[in-house]
Design a protein that fits this description.
There is one protein chain. The protein folds into four domains: 181 residues, Cytochrome Bc1 Complex, Chain A, domain 1, CATH 3.30.830; 48 residues; 243 residues, Cytochrome Bc1 Complex, Chain A, domain 1; 193 residues, Metalloenzyme, LuxS/M16 peptidase-like (Cytochrome Bc1 Complex, Chain A, domain 1), CATH 3.30.830.10. Helix 1 crosses helix 7 and helix 21 packs across helix 25. 51% of the residues lie in helices and 17% in strands. The chain contains 27 helices and 17 strands. It has a six-stranded mixed sheet. It is globular, with a radius of gyration of 28 Å. The longest helix is centred in the last third of the chain and has 26 residues. The chain has 724 residues and is α+β, with helices and mostly antiparallel strands.
C-alpha cells in the first residue's frame, strides 16, 4: 500500500473554449489527449514515471459536456514534499510540449481510432450517439452539428496541416495560470471525527424533538410512531396492484433464440471458430492459449504479467513506439487472464491467456505482429523493467481500498464462491481480495532488489509457458465479413507459423519466490477494512449448467428474491444501498449480497431465512412473469457483433445448450421455484453456505461462533483515513 505520507491527491483544471465551437473543441480534445494518453505521453512521463505520484486522478482529461469545456490534470499518491512540485511540473511540461510540437504519426493514430469507433458496430450505438451530443444539446446547440464527423475530421486535417495549429491552441488556453487547483489530504482521525460529528448531530436532533414534544418520553413515542408508520407504508407497497401499468408478457419473448452463423475449422495446429457477419470491414480476433497445471504462485502473477506486457517494451521498440503502432494499425490489442468453468462438471475449469484484437481487414497482419511482439518479445531483462514494474505495483496498491469499496459486494461474493469449485478459486486468485492482498504485499517489498529479481523471473516463466501454449494448445475465434475470410486465414497461418518458431527459455525459480496465498476454508470470514459501512455475501453451491431445469428455477428464484424480498427488507428497511440475489449457472453457485450495508448482521439473518420465505410463499402468475422478464432483460439484451458466439468459444456452451436453457426459463412454474427454494433451504440447514463480510468489525463477528477474521486494513497498510 502507498506510504501514509504519500496519499495526497491534487489536480489542476482549466476552463477551455466554448463547446459550441465544435471544430475547436474537437482539436482541443485531440491536443490534450496527446498530452496524457499512454505511457509515452509527456504528462505520464513527467508526473508518474518521474515518481511525483502513482497514477492520474479520475478527473484527468478533457470534458466537453458543459457550455465551457474543462481540462484537468490530476495525480494520486503524492507525498507532502512533492505537492508543490506537481503544478510546477505540469506547467513546465505543457510549455515543453508546445515548444517541441506533436508528431504527425501520433495525430494520425488518434484519427485512426476515431475512424474505427465509427465503423465498430456496438450494441450501444444509439445510446453512444446521444451521450456524445448531449453536452451540446443541453446547452442549446444543434446536436446534429456534432454528428458531422466526416466534415469535422476533414477540416481538422486541413487545419493541422498548418504550422503549429495544435500547439497554438494549447498556448491559448493552458499557458495562463487561470486555473483551479485542489488538494485532498487524508486524515488519520477521519473515522473518529465522523463518528463524533454524527453523535453531535444526533444529540442536537434529540434535543430539538424533546423541546418540541415537551419531554424525552413523548419525543421517543413520537419517533416510534413515525417508524411504525414507515414500516406499515413499506409493507403496503409490497402488495400494491400494478395492473394499471403497461407491461410486457412472456408471450412477447420468442422461444427460439436468434440464429448465429458459426463454423469450425483448423488452421495449422489451432482450432478456429468462424463467425461471418457484416462488420464494416473490421476483423475481431480472440485467442486462448491454454495453461495446464499452472502453479498457484505463477497464476496469481498473471494479471501483473499482462499489465507488464503493455508497459515495458522490447529490445527494439519502446512502449511509446508500440502504443503509436497499436493506435495507427488496430482498434486495440490486449492480453489478459482467462478462466471458465465447465458446463458439464463443477469440478473442472479451464484457464489460459486471452489474446484480443481488432483491426480493419487490411491491417490484420499488423495486428498479429503486434500481439506477437507484446507477448513473446517483451524484455523483462531491460534495465527499465524493475522501475516500470514498481510503477505498476504502486498504481495498483494505491487504489486498492477505493476499488474494493466501489464493488465491495462483488469482492465478497467472489471470495464466498471461491470455496465451491476450481473456477471460483482461480477467479478469486486472479481478480478478488486474494489478488488485492498480493499486489499490496509486492508493492511493500518493491525496494527489495532480491524480491524484485525473483518476481521478474516468475514473470519470465509465465512468458515461457505462454510461448509453449501458443504452439500446443491454442484456439481462435474470428469474426469478419465473408469477403475477408480467405485473407484472414492466410494471416492467421502466418501468425501461427511465426509464433511456433519462437522458443523462450524457462528460468529456474527458487522455492522462496512463491507468493501463493490460500483461500480460507472457513464458512464465515470477515475482512476488516476502514469503512463506515459493510458489504456482505452468502453463497451456496448448486448444479452444473447442463442441469437445465434446476438452473432455470434458480435463476427465476434469484430474480424473485431480489425484487420481492431482499430489496424491501435490506434496502428499504435495513438502509443498505442495495441487496441482490444471483444464480451463476456456469460456476454452479447461488449468491445473495448487500452493498454499503449499515447492518450486515440483520442482512445476513434475512439472507439465511430467504429460502424458507420463498418456500412458504404462494407465487402468483404475475410475479413469475415479472421475474422471467427480468431474467430475459439480460439474455435478450442487444449484443455487439464482436461478442456474438463468444459464449460458445470461451465457455464451451453450445447454441443447443443456450436454447434448452431458454425454453426451461420460459417454462418455470411456481412449483419449480418452491423446489429450488427447498433445495437451498436444505443446504443452509446442513451448513453448506459460505458467508463473507467486508467492513468494520462488528460485535456479532466472534471466533467462538466460527468466524475467521482477517485484518485486511493492516495488510493494505491503511487505517482510519480511508472511507467508503
Amino acid at each position: 500500500m502507498t506510504a501514509p505520507d504519500a496519499q495526497n491527491r491534487t489536480s489542476v483544471a482549466w476552463i477551455m473554449g466554448d463547446t459550441s465551437n465544435i471544430q475547436e473543441s474537437f482539436a482541443l480534445n485531440i491536443a490534450t489527449s496527446l498530452l496524457t494518453d499512454g505511457y509515452g505521453s509527456p504528462m505520464y512521463r513527467a508526473l508518474v514515471e518521474s515518481g511525483l505520484g502513482s497514477d492520474f486522478s479520475p478527473n484527468t482529461g478533457y470534458d466537453s459536456h458543459m457550455a465551457k469545456a474543462i481540462f484537468a490534470l490530476g495525480l494520486n499518491g503524492v507525498t507532502d514534499e512533492n505537492l508543490p512540485k506537481v503544478k510546477e511540473t505540469v506547467f513546465a511540461t505543457i510549455k515543453e510540449s508546445i515548444a517541441n510540437g506533436f508528431e504527425k504519426q501520433k495525430v494520425d493514430g488518434m484519427l485512426h481510432q476515431l475512424e474505427l469507433s465509427l465503423k465498430h458496430k456496438t450494441a450501444r450505438f444509439g445510446i453512444g450517439l446521444v451521450q456524445n451530443v448531449q453536452g451540446q444539446w443541453f446547452t442549446g446547440k444543434d446536436p446534429f452539428d456534432a454528428l458531422q464527423w466526416n466534415s469535422i475530421v476533414q477540416k481538422f486535417k486541413s487545419d493541422f496541416a498548418k504550422p503549429r495549429y495544435l500547439e497554438d491552441l494549447l498556448e491559448k488556453y493552458l499557458v495562463s495560470d487561470r486555473t483551479l487547483t485542489y488538494i485532498m489530504r487524508p486524515s488519520a482521525s477521519y473515522a473518529a471525527d465522523l463518528a463524533a460529528e454524527e453523535q453531535s448531530r444526533l444529540a442536537t436532533k434529540i434535543d430539538a424533538e424533546t423541546a418540541q414534544h415537551g419531554s424525552a418520553e413523548a419525543a421517543y413515542e413520537h419517533l416510534r410512531k413515525q417508524e411504525l408508520d414507515l414500516v406499515e407504508e413499506q409493507d403496503a407497497g409490497r402488495s400494491q396492484s400494478v395492473d394499471c401499468l403497461p407491461m410486457l408478457s412472456t408471450k412477447d419473448i420468442s422461444r427460439k433464440q436468434k440464429d448465429i452463423a458459426i463454423r469450425d475449422s483448423t488452421v495449422a495446429h489451432a482450432k478456429v471458430q468462424w463467425h461471418e457477419a457484416p462488420t464494416n470491414e473490421l476483423t475481431y480476433f480472440r485467442g486462448i492459449a491454454k495453461f495446464d497445471d499452472l502453479p498457484d504462485e505463477l497464476r496469481m502473477l498473471v494479471p501483473l504479467f499482462c499489465d507488464a506486457l503493455m508497459r515495458i517494451g522490447t529490445r527494439n521498440k519502446s512502449m511509446e513506439e508500440l502504443e503509436d503502432l497499436i493506435k495507427l494499425k488496430t482498434g486495440g490489442v490486449s492480453i489478459g487472464y482467462h478462466v471458465s468453468g465447465s458446463p458439464h462438471d463443477l469440478q473442472t475449469a479451464h484457464e489460459g491467456l486471452m489474446l484480443r484484437g481488432s483491426a480493419f481487414d487490411r491491417n490484420v497482419p499488423a495486428m498479429y505482429e503486434l500481439l506477437q511482439i507484446l507477448l513473446l518479445e517483451t524484455d523483462f531483462d531491460s534495465p527499465k523493467a524493475h522501475k516500470m514494474i514498481r510503477e505498476l505495483l504502486q498504481s495498483g496498491a494505491s487504489g486498492a481500498v477505493d476499488a474494493v469499496a466501489g464493488s465491495g459486494h462483488m469482492y465478497a461474493s467472489m471470495y464466498a464462491n471461491a470455496g465451491f469449485g476450481p473456477s471460483g478459486r482461480l477467479a478469486e486468485q486472479t481478480g478478488g481480495l486474494t489478488q488485492v492482498k498480493l499486489i499490496a504485499q509486492l508493492a511493500s517489498a518493491e525496494e527489495n532488489a532480491n524480491a524484485m529479481t525473483s518476481l521478474i523471473k516468475q514473470l519470465q516463466a509465465i512468458q515461457a509457458l505462454a510461448s509453449g501454449s501458443l504452439k500446443s494448445s491454442f484456439r481462435v475465434a474470428l469474426t469478419c465479413g465473408s469477403s475477408a475470410t480467405s485473407a484472414n486465414e492466410s494471416a492467421l497461418q502466418s501468425f501461427l507459423t511465426s509464433t511456433s518458431s519462437t522458443a523462450l527459455p524457462t528460468p529456474t525459480l527458487s522455492t522462496s519466490s512463491a507468493t501463493a496465498s490460500s483461500i480460507s476454508t472457513s464458512s464465515r470470514t470477515h475482512f476488516t477494512l476502514p469503512y463506515q459501512v459493510s458489504y456482505a455475501a452468502l453463497a451456496l453451491p448448486t448444479a452444473p449448467y447442463t442441469s437445465t431445469s434446476t438452473q432455470a428455477a434458480n435463476s427465476i428464484l434469484a430474480a424473485l428474491l431480489t425484487h420481492k424480498h431482499l430489496h424491501h427488507e435490506i434496502r428499504e428497511k435495513g438502509g443498505a444501498y442495495g441487496a441482490f440475489a444471483s444464480s451463476r449457472p456456469l460456476s454452479g453457485t447461488f449468491t445473495m449480497s448487500s452493498y454499503r450495508d449499515p447492518n450486515p448482521e440483520n442482512s445476513l439473518k434475512i439472507m439465511t431465512e430467504s429460502a424458507k420465505w420463498a418456500l412458504d410463499r404462494q407465487w402468483s402468475r404475475q410475479e413469475l412473469e415479472e421475474a422471467k422478464l427480468s431474467v430475459f432483460q439480460g439474455i435478450d439484451a442487444p449484443v455487439s457483433v464482436s461478442a456474438e458466439g463468444m459464449v460458445r468459444f470461451e465457455a464451451g456452451i453450445s447454441r443447443a445448450m443456450e436454447q434448452e436453457r431458454r425454453e426451461a426459463l420460459l417454462d418455470v412454474q411456481a412449483s419449480d421455484v418452491r423446489s429450488a427454494a427447498e433445495g437451498l433451504a436444505g443446504k443452509l440447514e446442513r451448513g453448506e453456505g459460505r458467508i463473507v463480510v467486508l467492513g468494520p468489525k462488528k460485535g456479532f463477528v466472534k471466533g467462538e461462533e466460527g468466524w475467521r477474521v482477517e485484518d485486511m486494513a493492516r495488510e493494505l497498510g491503511v487505517g482510519g483515513a480511508a472511507a467508503a
